[in-house]
TrEMBL record:
InterPro entries: DUF6494
Domain of life where this protein originates: Bacteria
One Pfam family here: DUF6494
Protein name (database record): Uncharacterized protein
Length: 66
């Protein structure tokens, strides 16, 4: 296993996940705000990371303030 190659590819993947996730969340929040369906208070969020080849499933939950 090449540790450096793994590290670079993981970082690249996580950067893509972060950028696209932020864009999707912002679009959904704006849309809900515009049509009056944005709930008061925070928003519950959850990300599920899966790697079927390794049998990996990892869940991260959080709150977003709006």
């Amino acid at each position: 296993m090449n540790e450096e190659k793994l590290n670079q590819s993981v970082r690249k993947f996580l950067k893509q996940v972060g950028v696209t996730s932020q864009r999707e969340i912002e679009l959904a929040v704006r849309s809900a705000s515009e049509d009056g369906t944005l709930p008061d208070g925070g928003l519950e969020v959850k990300v599920v990371l899966q790697c079927p080849d390794l049998g990996l499933e990892h869940e991260v939950k959080g709150q977003l303030e709006v």
